[in-house]
Design goal:
143 residues, Nuclear Transport Factor 2, Chain: A, six-stranded mixed sheet, 3 helices, 6 strands, elongated
């Protein structure tokens, strides 16, 4: 009886430890994808952005830069603005404040402090079939 309880407890601890370790690994990968995204935007690296942005990527600008509505910019529009040097080009300090991973989905609150302004953004990410985290949605606010 004692052996059964001991084995059951050991298996339970192993499972919990393994699941926690997997979650921490996924969180690390999400943080890496966010860092790649910020660095690529700062450097206006269209190729790197294309790799880290999901094909369904949307930038949602809610009443920003004098607008009164929500403006949505898709991946092609975002990359075009990078190419035209309307977006990006700043060296920003990236602080990932909160990451939540749920299976193949993740969200994060991120502060991007640059020389022009500071953004606090809510990012949503999805893990591809290949196991790569990609940015699906970016909803920034200027502080």
């Amino acid at each position: 009886m004692k052996v059964t309880i001991l084995v059951s407890t050991a298996l339970m601890l192993f499972t919990i430890t393994n699941l926690f370790g997997q979650k921490m690994d996924e969180e690390k990968l999400v943080r890496e994808a966010i860092s790649k995204f910020a660095k690529a935007a700062d450097e206006r690296d269209e190729k790197a952005l294309d790799e880290v942005l999901d094909n369904t990527f949307r930038l949602a600008l809610n009443q920003m830069f004098g607008g009164k509505d929500v403006s949505l910019i898709d991946k092609n529009g975002y990359l075009e603005r990078i190419r035209e040097k309307k977006f990006g080009g700043d060296k920003r300090e990236v602080t990932v404040e909160n990451v939540i991973v749920m299976n193949n989905n993740a969200s994060a609150r991120v502060t991007l402090k640059g020389s022009k302004f500071t953004l606090v953004t809510l990012l949503q990410l999805g893990k591809s079939n290949e196991g790569v985290w990609k940015i699906v949605n970016d909803m920034p606010s200027v502080l």
